[in-house]
Every structure is written in structure tokens, then in C-alpha cells.
């Protein structure tokens, strides 16, 4: 289903509101998830069984159909750069900027990142302690919290507060 979705449906689907939300890292609602499922079914990309399998996708400590799709479409680079802009603002070191850029690149390609991954190579190539060696404890906690929030935004919730 992933190959068919990537090839046949996603180019046109990228214009749809739920996919824009998915790629921007904004939280998906249950209604968004249902719309995304409907789009793929109507396009003949997958069957009900494929959708059910995709609903069980797990990655980066989150799960669901939105997680499956996010892993295919990735995240919009500009949106993610905005999300982490304060970590690379004036006064950031070259290593901090490089680290954040590596995380942004990973998110752009893969759509999510397990927070534990930033403590492994290639993220630890700059410093063996990963973000702990680059940022203060509070900054590291905030950075990891943002990663988790981005990951959870693909799960879909009943909260429709962010409907734009």
C-alpha cells in the first residue's frame, strides 16, 4: 500500500487540508484521519484490510494511521525549521546549528523521530552526549518535548482546537 500511495495518490493529496496538517506537524483530528483513510480507499490505493494494518503502524513511540502516512510524506522543511528556530537563533554554536539541521533533515524525510535516536550516530558524531552535550538541561528537555509533540501530532485526537 505504501508504494501505491506514494506514487498514485499523494501528489494530488498534498493539496488537501488533512495532508497539509500532517506535513506541517499540526495536530490531526480524528476527522482528519477519517478523511485521509477515505481518500486512499476512494483512490483505490488500498483495501479496508490495508487501512486496518496501517492503523497499527508504530514508530517513534506513537501509533496509528496518521503515523503511517507521516512516515510516507514526511514533514515540510519550512514548518519544521520554524518549530525549532529558537534552538538555532542568534548565539547558537555551529555544532548546535548542525545538530538541529540533522534533526530537521531526518524529520523532513521520515516524518518523525524517536527521541532516543538523537543519542545515537549520526547525531552523536558532533558530541558523544547528543543534545546533552550541546544544550543546557532545560533546553534539552524542551527540544525532546518538541520532538514528542511533533510525533504525537500524527496520531489524531478528538480535540479539534487547531482546525485551521
Task: Describe this structure as you would to a colleague.
- By secondary structure, the protein is mainly alpha-helical.
- It is built from eight helices and two strands, in the order ααααββαααα.
- The chain has helices at residues 2-13, 17-24, 30-42, 48-55, 65-73, 77-83, 94-110, 137-152; strands spanning 58-59, 62-63.
- It has a two-stranded antiparallel sheet with strand order 1-2.
- β1 and β2 (62-63) form a beta hairpin.
- α4 packs across α5.
- The longest helix is centred in the middle third of the chain and has 17 residues, at 94-110.
- It is elongated and about 50 Å long.
- It starts with a helix and ends in a 12-residue tail after the last helix.
